[in-house]
Specification:
This protein is an alpha/beta fold. The protein is 35% helix and 16% strand. It has 5 helices and 11 strands, in the order αβββαββββββαβαβα. The strands form 4 sheets. Strands 7-6-10-1-11 form a 5-stranded mixed sheet. The protein has a two-stranded antiparallel sheet with strand order 2-3. Strands 4-5 form a two-stranded antiparallel sheet. It binds zinc ion.
Length: 228
């Protein structure tokens, strides 16, 4: 009887010992996994400016991110990203009153510019460049769909500079990668009335003003709501 008790106690002790080893092994191997940093997402490296090539309003309805989303849905654009479907090809839409609306998340690929092969190297503008669209037709040509030729409003220009500065800081985007759609593809977009020189002058001054060891670029993992 005593012998039996001895063996059952020994078996229990051995079982607990092995179970303990397995538990700690799995615990520490998990701990080891936690110490491995997750792969860093590759953020955008540039910005492409666009115009909507549309009137500011159609009837009483103003053209905004929602309307563009519906228009791009008809064209068959879609992207599923983090549980949501997006049709709009741009990452930001800037309304004539200076409101900045969100399109696709910043880390999601866009649908706003064709890839280009330059010096044997293919540049994927949709994957690496953010698309910012200002509502209006800034081309000197008008068609039935574009409506009359207009200039961006001062509020729109200021909002464009504001959001571009934020993106420069967030992703370390160099000035040479801030371009117009027509600089890369066969298009008039964003039109001759788009004040590219003025905007770039302001951005140059901004970058120059904060040059120094204290300028730190941060990358965000997800898009944040941007407020003016
Ligand atoms: Zn464009």
């Amino acid at each position: 009887m005593e012998r039996r008790a001895f063996w059952s106690r020994s078996l229990l002790a051995a079982f607990l010992f092995i179970a303990g080893i397995l538990f700690f092994k799995s615990f520490f191997s998990h701990r080891k996994d936690w110490r491995v940093p997750p792969p860093k997402p590759v953020g955008p490296i540039g910005i492409v400016f666009h115009h909507s090539a549309s009137p500011r309003k159609v009837g009483n309805a103003r053209i905004n991110a929602r309307r563009i989303d519906a228009m791009h849905k008809k064209r068959g654009y879609w992207l599923y990203y983090e549980g949501k479907t997006y049709h709009i090809g741009y990452h930001f839409v800037i309304l004539p009153d200076g409101t900045i609306e969100l399109g696709r998340p910043e880390m999601a690929r866009g649908a706003h510019a064709h890839a280009v092969v330059r010096n044997g190297k293919r540049i994927e503008y949709n994957t690496r460049y953010l698309g910012i669209c200002l509502v209006g037709n800034f081309s000197n040509k008008r068609t039935r769909s574009t409506g009359p030729s207009v200039s961006p409003t001062p509020e729109q220009v200021e909002a464009t500079i504001h959001i571009t500065k934020k993106l420069i800081d967030r992703y370390g985007i160099p000035l040479e990668n801030i371009i117009r759609h027509r600089d890369i593809n066969q298009t008039r977009c964003p039109g001759t009335r788009f004040p590219y020189g003025f905007i770039m002058g302001r951005l140059k001054a901004y970058v120059a003003s904060k040059k120094g060891p204290s300028s730190v670029y941060t990358r965000s993992l997800s898009s944040r709501l941007l407020t003016r």
